[in-house]
């Protein structure tokens, strides 16, 4: 990792020494999210909304008629998202700029 990407980020060699270059690393945190981001920026990013959607489709696939179509879309978007991150070190705009919109209530379908 280049120090210009993130001044406090762990260099690649140190990261590989701690976590190995090909092992899975899962980080669950209760706090200090910013500190984790600063240290691990550019190293851990294999969890996207598309991974979560694929997990959901996998778990309910037998009960969801369009599961295969949805899974294919998520796999395609995950690849597209990964390419964007590798090339630009940023999420896709539809992820980066996403804002929660609460669903309309059934009684207020205007």
Could you characterize the architecture of this molecule?
The structure is a single chain. By secondary structure, the chain is an all-alpha fold. The protein contains five helices and no strands. It has helices at 12-19, 33-40, 49-60, 67-88, 93-96. The protein is globular. The mean pLDDT is 76.
What tags apply to this protein structure?
49% helix, single chain, 110 residues, 5 helices
Count every beta strand, where a strand is a DSSP E run of 2 or more residues. 0
How much strand content do the residues show?
under 5%
User: Which stretches are poorly predicted, pLDDT < 50 over at least 5 residues?
Assistant: none
- Sheet with most strands: none
Structural class given helices, strands, pairing? mainly alpha
- Report helical residue fraction: 40-55%
Order of helices and strands: HHHHH
In short:
With 110 residues, the protein is mainly alpha-helical. The protein is built from 5 helices and no strands.
Record the SSE blueprint.
Layout (H helix, E strand, L loop, with lengths): L11 H8 L13 H8 L8 H12 L6 H22 L4 H4 L14
């Amino acid at each position: 990792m280049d120090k210009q990407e993130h001044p406090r980020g762990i260099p690649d060699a140190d990261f590989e020494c701690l976590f190995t270059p090909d092992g899975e690393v899962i980080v669950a945190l209760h706090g200090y999210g910013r500190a984790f981001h600063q240290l691990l920026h550019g190293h851990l990013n294999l969890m996207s909304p598309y991974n979560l959607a694929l997990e959901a489709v996998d778990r309910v696939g037998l009960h969801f008629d369009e599961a295969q179509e949805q899974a294919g879309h998520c796999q395609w978007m995950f690849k597209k998202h990964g390419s964007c991150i590798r090339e630009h070190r940023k999420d896709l705009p539809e992820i980066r700029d996403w804002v929660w919109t609460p669903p309309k209530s059934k009684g207020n379908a205007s």
